Amino acid sequence: MRSLILTLAVLAGACAGQPVNRTSSTPLPVSAVETEPYLGLWHEAARLPNRFERDCVAATAEYGARDDGMLSVRNVCTRADGSTRDAVGRARRVGEGDEGKLKVSFFGPFWADYWVVERADDYSWSIVSEPEGRYLWVLTRAEQITPAERALFDARLRALGFDTSKLIWNAAS
User: Fold this and answer.
1) pTM
2) Where are the beta strands (DSSP E) in the chain?
3) Any bridge partners for residue 56, and if so which?
């Protein structure tokens, strides 16, 4: 019995390991994300591959204020043929204050982590992930970024511990 417990403990530890797309521990959410400056349209400059954006060549996220204190979320995916599809959801803060830790839901009672792990002081860009590192987005206010900006984002993401070799840069970037 003792060896079974030890074996299970070792297996659990081996499975825990590093998050999927990260080379180090998870970065913490930024300490302050004010709601008002975060609202509006964001363009996806880059992302880690994920099943719900499999055929997207460009994407946007638009955040708005709701009467119930939550945020409205509308994500639009543009495909190579020019067609679009959107997903409408809601987001809410986790905990007190302005910490960059939110939960987002696009389907009923199911919520997912949405952590702002870095952002510009002027809210011109934002890096969003979640604790396991499975998802990552670089969002900008500008529809396109320059090669120099792309290199800076790549360096920032590596400094945060993300494996940038897997990034998908959107067509406009």
Assistant:
1) 0.84
2) 40-47, 56-65, 71-79, 84-93, 101-107, 110-119, 125-129, 136-140, 168-169
3) 79
Give Cβ neighbours of residue 31 (< 8 Å, ≥ 6 apart). 98, 99, 100
Among residues 145, 148, 135, the alpha carbon closest in space to that of 169 is found at 145
Alpha-carbon distance of 113 to 129, in angstroms, equals 8
Judge contact between 167 and 50, C-beta under 8 A. no
pLDDT, tens only, 45-100: 999 999 999 999 999 999 999 999 999 999 999 999 999 999 999 999 997 777 89
As beta bridge partners, residue 153 has none
CB-count burial class (<10 Å; 0-12, 13-18, 19+) for 90: middle
Domain at 20-169, CATH class: mainly beta
User: Hunting for tokens 């998870």 — which residue is that?
Assistant: 26
Domain ranges of the chain: 20-169
Torsions phi, psi of 75, nearest 5? -100, 130
Can you read off the two tokens belonging to residue 149? 């900006």
